[in-house]
Fold this protein.
Amino acid sequence: MIEIIVNDRLGKKVRVKCMPEDTIGDLKKLIAAQTGTKPEKIILKKWYSTYKDHITLDDYEIHDGMNLEMYYC
Amino acid sequence: MADEEISLSIEETNKLRISLGLKPLSVDNEPKKASAEDNYAKYKDDLKKTEEAKKIQEKIQRSRNKRELKKKLSGKGLSELGEDEDDDALAWIKRQKKRQKELAELKQKELEAMDNEVIEEYKSENLKGLKVGHDISEIEAGEEEILVLKDAMITEDDDVNDELISNRLTEKEKLQKNLELKKKRNVYGGVYDDEEALFGKKKILSQYDNDDDENKGFILNGKGEVFDTSIHRNDEQNGLKKGGLDLNYNKMQEIKDYYTKDEMVSFKKPKKKKKKKHSRKKLEDINDDLMDIDNGENTMESSSQSEIKPVEKYSYSNITTNIDDINFIDDDELQIALSKARRKKTKKLVKSLKETVEDVKQENLKEKEKEENDNEIENENDLSYDLRRKEETEGVKFINEVSETSEFIRNIPTLPLLQRQNQNEKSSHTNNNDLIEKENEMELESLHDSNNEDDIQEQKEESLEEGEKMESEHGEDTNEQSTTSNTGIAALEEEPLISSGMAATVSLLLQKGIVNPVTKEELEKEKLQLEKEKWLNEQKINDLIKERRKQKDRDRRDRHGRSSRDRDRDRDYDREDIYRERERAREAEKKFKNYKPVVNIEYHDEFGRTLTQKEAFRQLSHKFHGKTSGKLKTEKRLKKLEEELKLKQMSSTDTPLGTVSALQEKTKAMGSAHLVLSIGNRGVLPSDNDIANLQPRTDVKKKSKETNSNESLGTSSTQQSSFVTSLNNPGNTNAPKREKITFGLKRKAEQEINPVFKKRE
């Protein structure tokens, strides 16, 4: 289990517990459940690279305690 | 706000995950670690085991080695020997002998084995199929040749047969090859080599493929005999001849319906070649026929053949061939060009003919027109008439002709004659004026006598008539003279004689360019002037008459005194006067209607030269501004003027100082065609006597001679000139026969010319 911190810089900071095998889509669902936004509206970014839904966290080398940026579309 | 973190506990997330259809979180990673530790332990165990095994094996090996070493050293040692047997020298020697024998036997066995091997491997049979890499001719009979296996690449699939070569022969071959290379055969000869001619197709850089060596050599037989490979070479030799023609061809060739591929090629060849073949065939046929004749019997058949034959024979001549179809012309373009040129030429010829015809016609027409014009012009009885006619009839224009004679004439008599001519001309031209003047005089005289206007008028008329008569007579004269002159003038222009009459003289003058031919404008001007003068004269006369009348009236008045009647008369007179005045005014108006004054404004400079427009303007501007051009400029202008004057004065046949004429006169006086200035390099002018006597001259004589010559020249020529001897090396007095004629001119022209340009003041 790893914990990831997702922050949109508008007042929402979510600490999500997930597995490295989870995809970005799953992560988005978890975030959506916690924040109350629709998962389709969430965009996860690290600097300028947006993460795609069908790829796992492990493949993106997202480890425990990493910070991700959250945007809405 | 920012610090608030939304987070779920593990259980909550697990619930969520399950609801989302994900597997629950695995809270611990422990099972993984355990396996890894196990594995690590196993690995370590394995390593330990392998190490132990190795150690054991090493131990075993060591022990084995030790054992083997001990085995080798199983014999008795030096120290042990003495212990086992007797230390006898005799025994030791015996042992040694035994040992030697054994060793010898062993060696013998070995040698025998080796010998057997050699003998078994190399017999002549083993050499069967081996190739020797030399020509058999190279290996001379009776000589021993050591053959060695040739170096070859060792490959896996060794199909290459071994080859035997002799070192000596290879060396020899190499040497020969080098020598040949040194000779340098011409690699790049002509475009087509003989080789190509033979093979048809040339190989690329064939000079570099050396196939000679491989084809050399022979193969050995099993029984030490030679199995020759020269057949190969024969084949190749045949191959060389492939390109050549095969002389024996198959006469009895079967005729097939279809061509083969090869035959098609020949079938498709252009016609030219076919024709050749055809002709050759024909020739062959004829030859065959001829052979037949030679061989054949003198039967009817042969005779018939012979009858037919000539035609066949001559089939090569043009008799049977269609000449029209044959194209004799090889170069079509050239032919076209030639034909074009020919056509042009013919056209030109035709054109020129036409043109000439037309020209002739036009000329005729022109002549007719001229004649008509002449008739018209005949009404004007002028001097110019006959001249013009001359021009037109003969195409001779009275342009200034420059010939030596004309120049001569121009030079010598010049002024007086000219003046005379001009006077004559004037008289001829201004006859009328003279007449008028005469009339005037007459009238004036008559006026003194009679007061009647009518009389005067009558007289005027008479005089006019007379003048006209005179004119007409004059005209007739000129006509006559012109006709005579016309008849006299030949193809070469003859100069009309002055003695024959006025017209002749005038025409001569015209011819010489002394007097310019009278133009129409000038004639008109003259006419107008005449009329004007006439009118002026008339007016003068009228004025005079009026004055006379007035005076008479006054006289009468004075005589009779004043009365009423007189006054009336006076009035009448006044009226008449007014009337007359009006009439006169009208007349004047009439006259002035045709008044066309000719205005020629001419400007003259201080020397009296007529100025051009430009020059005149310059002068004017100078005057206006009170400023003239600078010194240099004026000098330049003066110089130019001088030169112009000189040029005008110069005659075309003589120098400005008239040296030629002077020389001519001198030669005339001397009676010789030349004038001797000096003899040789003496720089001395000998006198006539000296030349005759060939005596050395003295200075006194020379001086006298010079003075003589100067005097003669001075008298003979109007212009000053003198002969000066050229002074070349006065010390050298030899070579009396070499004569030198030179002219040296003293310039006095400037002195002559300058006075002209002195300002008139």
